[in-house]
Amino acid sequence: MQLKLTLIGVAVATALLGCSQAPVESTNTNTTAKVEIVDKATDNPLLAPFSGPYQGVPQFDKMDLAQLKPALEAAMAEQLAEVEAIANNPEQPTFANTIVALEGAGKTLDRVFTYYGIWGSNVSSPEFREIRNEMAPKLSAFNSKITQNSKLFARVKAVYESEELKTLTPEEQRITWIVYNGFARNGATLDDAAKKRYADINQELATLHAKFSSNVLADEENYVVFLTKEQLSGLPQSFIDSAAAAAKERGKEGQYAITNSRSSMDPFLTYSTERALREQVWKNYYERGNNGDEHDNNAVIKAILKLRHERVQLLGYENYAQWRLEDRMAKTPENAMALMNKVWPAAIARVKEEVADMQAIADKEGANIKIEPWDYRFYSEKVRKDKYDLDSNEVKQYLQLDNLREAMFYVAGRLFNFDFTEVAKGSVPVFHEDVRVWEVKDKTTGKHIGLWYLDPFARKGKRSGAWATTYRSHTTYDGVTNVLSSNNSNFVKAPEGKPTLISWSDAETYFHEFGHALHFLSADVKYPTSHSGVRDYTEFQSQLLERWLLTDEVIDQFLVHQETGKPMPKELVAKIKASATFNQGFSTTEYMASAIMDLLYHTTDPAKIEPQQFEKEQLTKLGMPSEVVMRHRSTHFGHIFSGEGYSAGYYGYLWAEVLTSDAAEAFASAPGGFYDKDVSARLVKYLFSVRNAMDPAEAYRLFRGRDAEVDALMRDRGFPVTK
After folding, report:
1. How far, in Å, CA of 646 to CA of 188, rounded?
2. What per-residue confidence (pLDDT) applies to 723?
3. Which part of the chain is CATH 1.10.1370.40?
4. Of 338, 366, 566, 655, which is most buried, counting CB atoms within 10 Å of its CB?
């Protein structure tokens, strides 16, 4: 159930991590209701079990938006019947008849949310957004009926406090704690009046989260800059070709479209010599949700913060961040802020150095300007060339998207013993012609592990950014299930017949998201709840995989020139490695500004917050350099305002980066380097396969032999290490 709740952004996600519930025994009277519901909906493909090869796959070719609302309603009704059957079981509560039962129910709704997620993220439309806005409060009310089911919670509590708990396996004990903790932290212990208000707040939040997301997507779709040939100066030909294709797709053949997405904005700001256009593109991107029109998100943010604060006060917490971090690695907002306070001074000090270098070049060229945020990438690239003789566009010629995919497969083969074979087109249904599918097997035994779907290109209706998800996870409690994993990106597609070239940063992101897929594919757990993530830990595995992009084995085999096919010259590789800490001031500061603001939003009385004023005042107090802005400014900060997955938890990327840097040093010092067999075996065993079946801190200690040290992060970024 975790996936479906993440998709709708419901506040009670953590409460229902374990509420994928079990089949109901035929002796229970609710079973009849369940069967009738399903029988009435047999003509709805969204409700049907996955069918076809590979243990059944989503029938993406049969998706019909008109069927979504009735599918959601039928699946919710079915799950509520299952929950009632579990809650009213006359037998004494046991792990089997309560916790395991909760693991198996809601399977129909899980399937419906596979399709819901595709409509929401990959092929969105105004029609879908209307349905999402209508259903969000209904889905929240549905979740509240589960979390506030007193009989159900009493049974969960009884198992958690029973003598039986001591006899269970470590994984079973952990999921029992997760399920109990989820209910207790989400209002199960409140009195009836407080429960009602809690449920009402969740419904209001669900509506606001959906509205926030829709507003951002509207601005991403509506703000496109169309250029003429005379406005292309400085842009690489590969980018020009992609911009031409994007314009043609939007009915503007002969022009060049700079779309309002990072994958289009970033290279334009890096290379375009048209400063006024750079400013326009920059403002389009960073003012999403902040344009004073019907899609403005400032009032939405205020309402979200007010409701979150009221909700956690019902539970007895001082602020939202205190509640959110209680069951995460950081434990408290003070601990999270302490980590950032250690890194922040070094980051902004480095920005001052970077700006000085850029300003010197601008002055030397007679530009007669002061470096502004829309200049940072442009002049940073000039500094890169000046300091390291490194041209990002030259590097890009060796970063072909297809080759990078094969590089990822190579790494997966070396570390995880996985083999990827593309399945025949048409044998597995897909939701867009760009989507391709690979079967994943164990290289040694030939054992089938699962499928990997790839949707790499940007298009209208697809949300920005990059992400990974699963349509089915590995479990063994009710028969062994394979994995259906997916990676999704927003690369600007090259014209037909030409390779899609991407930046080094985008290549790192490609590896990053594949790390999430490997986390899914390598899972070796019994229960669905073991796949629930700890947010300040789950980014660690994917961040770590980025390190293999710079290994000699990958560079020598897969980073070949798009025209000549020759490997990247050693001189160019040396320049890339030498510049590894280049621009770390910018990248660290823009990220940390967002992470710090996230915590400030969720530790401050919302009555005192006017989003734009609050953002400006707090960043000024922090000494935020004027040449850099938050990576995600408040009005388009979807991580924390379009749902609650990362709310008060965006710091988690930095927390995970400490683990990443420390783990990378374990590989770097091993005899076999980044492909060392012993360290790789520990990586898979303790850091990937266990998912959340083990406490993350314990898992890391088993891998490393000690806790992670923050000094590794400082060394990684070229910042001074202070004792």
Report:
1. 23
2. 61
3. 2-193
4. 655
- Lowest model confidence (mean pLDDT) among 21-25, 59-63, 230-234, 658-662: 21-25
| Partners of 400 in beta bridges | 501
Count how many residues are written for the chain. Answer: 723
Q: Once rounded to an integer, what is the mean pLDDT over residues 8-20? A: 30
- Burial of 566: CB neighbours in 10 Å, binned 0-12, 13-18, 19+: exposed
- d(CA 685, CA 676) in angstroms, rounded, equals 14
Which burial class, exposed, middle or buried, applies to 443 when counting CB atoms under 10 A from its CB (0-12, 13-18, 19+)? Answer: middle
Using the structure block, give the residue that is written with the tokens 């924390």. 640
Give the list of residues 6+ apart from residue 470 with CB closer than 8 angstroms, or none.
3, 483, 484, 485, 486, 520, 531
Q: How do residues 454-498 score in pLDDT, each as one tens digit?
A: 999 999 899 988 999 999 999 999 999 999 999 999 998 999 899
Q: Provide the CATH topology of domain 401-532.
A: Collagenase (Catalytic Domain) (3.40.390)
Tokens of 358: 């850029």
- For residue 606, count CB atoms less than 10 angstroms from its CB and return exposed for 0-12, middle for 13-18, buried for 19 or more: buried
Rounded Cα distance between 454 and 263, Å, is: 17
Given this model, what pLDDT does residue 21 score? Answer: 28
CATH 1.10.10.60 at 2-193, yes or no? no
pTM for the predicted model, two decimal places = 0.85
Domain with CATH 3.40.390.10 in the chain: 401-532
